[in-house]
Every structure is written in C-alpha cells, then in structure tokens.
Amino acid sequence: MNFGATILDADGTRLSKDETDFFREANPFGFILFARNIAAPDQVYALCSELRDAVGRDAPITIDQEGGRVQRLRGPTWTDWASPLDFIRAAGDAAERAMYLRYRLIAHELKALTIDSNCAPMVDLIVHETHDFLRNRCYGTSPGDVAALGRAAAEGMLEGGVLPVLKHIPGHGRTDLDSHFDLPRVHTELDELRETDFAPFRALNDLPVGMTAHVVYSAIDDAPATLSPETMALIRDDIGFDGLILTDDIGMEALSGTIAHIAHGALAAGCDVILHCNAPLADRIACANAAGQMSQAAQTRAEAALAARRTPDDIDIAELTAELETLLSGRPYG
C-alpha cells in the first residue's frame, strides 16, 4: 500500500489515543515536530517512537532547525544557533566549512532523538525587497555563494544521517510579504529569475526532498507555486528538481479555500506530499482524507528519498565543535 500523501504533526509532547488511531488509519508519509512537542530528550525520543509505531514503519520525522528565530530545539538542553546570515558573516572566508560543521552538529543532535530530517537548507536569495521574516534566515545575495553554502549545509546533514529539505522552491526571497499572513507576488521577468532566484535550486536539484513557496510568479502563472501546474512544471523541467516535493504548510494565510480544496489543488499541480501543521485534529483528518494515498510517481520519489537516509559517518563531535569555534575566532554560535 502506498503512503498517505501527507506530513502531519501532533498536539503535544505525547500522542493522544485519538491521534494514534488517526495516524494508524491515515498512514501519513511522515511527521513534523514543533516547539510544543519538545520538552526533554527522553520525551522527544518517546514521541518519535509513538509516531512511528502508529504507522508501523520507520517514517521520516522532520523539524525546522535552521538556527536563529527558526529552531525548535533550544538551549540549555540543545545548542542555540545564531541566525544563518549572522553566522555566515561571522565565519567570513571560512563560511562554507563553517556551514558544513554547523549542520553536521545539528544533525548529530537531531539523530540522537531519532529525528531524521530537517527543513533546511533555505537557499532563497536576499534582494532589496526581501521581507524581514526571511532576511536573516537567508545565506546571501549571490546565487553562486548561496548554492555553495546550501550544498555545505546539505552535506553536513546527509553525512549525519538527516535528510535535508530544500526550500522554498523556486525562491521566496524576492517578496516583501510574509506568506504566513499574505500571498506574495513576484513580478520579475522570467529570464532574470532564471539567472538569480532559481539558480541555487538548479545547483541543488539532486537533493532528495524540496518544499514549495507559496508565492505567485506573474511571469509564469497567476496562482502560487504550490497550486500552479505551470510553476511545478518549471521546477521539474527547467530547474530540474526530480526529488520528492512537499508543500509548505497549507494552513498558511497565503493560500485560500478549504483544506480539502487546497490539498486537491496542490496534488493536481504536481506536489507529491501535503504538509499541514498547527491545526485541530478535525482539520488534519480532512487533509488526510482529501490527500489520500500517494500517486505512483510520488511513491517512487518518496522511496528514493528514504533510500537517501544514511548511517551517520563516524566522526569526533568534540573535534568538529572545536574546529567550528576556531573558525568563528572563539565567538559563540548564538
């Protein structure tokens, strides 16, 4: 039987009976954790076990652990990281190596909890219009530099046994609105987008998993990328991304309509998996019912993504930590 075409979350630090029963029936492809799901290492480990037991397999569990404002695991139990942009600036000429080390260390903390995916790297470019909600989460203004930093981050995670989720395809940086609350529109010509915003995603098109942007690119279509067959075709054919594509959270205000309407639209446009978060159980049930099971093409990509999970390489964490501290000239990560 194919996986359910969803990635879903839980209400709290342990599963309720209703959630367990629902997940067993819906069989979502995977799960995502938020701060409300995090209390202590043993608790997170137990929650991950409950999620996987509910679907009866080693389902992927992802999280947003970028650093800065967007990190669900925080100190003092886990490492507090500076925002990516501040970190890159502090690392200077050693930024690529520092980014590899940063995300290799993040992967180590995630894998200790059995979390095996992370919603990063985020290779959206900084431009004049970039909204503050995104700016310090970005890696820079140059497509080449951003691609190299994204590659370093992805390799750090992969070598630590964590699947990276490339976001936000095909590029969220050229927007002055926060898609959590509004629908951003980009009116830049397609040739310029290909040379700038799309370029880092093309350079990283071999990564196993990607996440869409809830952004309208008027040079392509009047619908946001998540719901646009034309934009999704560009992602596959022009950018060349052949990995598993999940939506950004379909509960964000950038998208309008019922959960079922949005889920149907995203799958029809070419997304493989629906990500739905921070909603009552009734809404999660509605999403799972609307999404149904993965298409055969999506199932094939999902299985390829799961096959990309590696056993972490054998490294000395203390040694890598010391190297990173040296690269940052003794400055703290946070």
Describe this structure in words.
This protein is α/β, with parallel strands linked by helices and 334 residues long. The protein has a single domain, classed as TIM Barrel (Alpha-Beta Barrel), CATH 3.20.20. Helix content is 41%, strand content 12%. The protein has 13 helices and 12 strands. The protein has helices at 17-26, 41-55, 84-91, 95-112, 132-135, 143-159, 190-195, 199-203, 229-237, 259-269, 281-291, 296-307, 317-327; strands at residues 4-8, 28-33, 61-63, 65-67, 70-71, 117-118, 163-169, 185-186, 209-212, 216-217, 244-246, 274-275. The protein has a 4-stranded parallel beta sheet. Helix 4 (95-112) packs antiparallel against helix 13 and helix 10 (259-269) runs parallel beside helix 11. The radius of gyration is 19 Å and the shape is globular. The model has no long low-confidence stretch (mean pLDDT 95).
Please specify the SSE layout and strand pairing.
Blueprint: E1 4-8, H1 17-26, E2 28-33, H2 41-55, E3 61-63, E4 65-67, E5 70-71, H3 84-91, H4 95-112, E6 117-118, H5 132-135, H6 143-159, E7 163-169, E8 185-186, H7 190-195, H8 199-203, E9 209-212, E10 216-217, H9 229-237, E11 244-246, H10 259-269, E12 274-275, H11 281-291, H12 296-307, H13 317-327
Parallel strand pairs: 1-2, 1-12, 2-3, 6-7, 7-9, 8-10, 9-11
Antiparallel strand pairs: 4-5
Helix pairs in contact: 1-2, 3-4, 4-6, 4-13, 10-11
